[in-house]
Amino acid sequence: MSTDVAIVILAGGEGSRIGGGKPLIELAGERLIVRALRFARRFSDCVAVAVRDARQVGSVEAQLIPDNSVEGPLGGLLAGLEFARREGRGLLLVIPADMPFLPNDLLDRLLGAIGPDQCAIAASGGSEHPVCSLWRAEAVERVPEYVATGRRSLKGLADLVGKTRVDWDDAPDPFFNINSAADLEEAERLVARWRSSEPKSTERP
Length: 205
Fold this sequence. Notes:
alpha/beta
């Protein structure tokens, strides 16, 4: 468990494609937000959830931080970077609430790759996943400059501050995210497959 890393779960999106309330959706009998918190707490004792409204996550045993100062995921990242600074942590790992199969080596590999850069971004299948990324807390100082340009993407901020990319080639894709009812059905199938084929001691969700 790292003593210099804060973790923030991004849970402020509307999730309109799946009818809203995405963090509250259950996978294998467990809410997505609870699964994300369980994952995060394996790596840090400094964990929070970024939300627009507390009702997005319901009752959870976690600190909630508002992400409404900037629209989109950038608001969650900004809230997270400020949270990391307040907690005296030099690094921030952000993960989304809707990726239930994140790799167990996520933090270790991002930590090992960040080097002198301000950000390390996970990637798979040829695509970057900026909502799964590790940031130096000092990157918060560059956010006002970036916001002033009118841009809001996490990729754009990462390019501004300096990033490195870390690729995973696992199958199935550990960065599979749930955006629709069909995605949820596929996630349920994956869970059932893992539970039937892997030892009970496995760390896979």
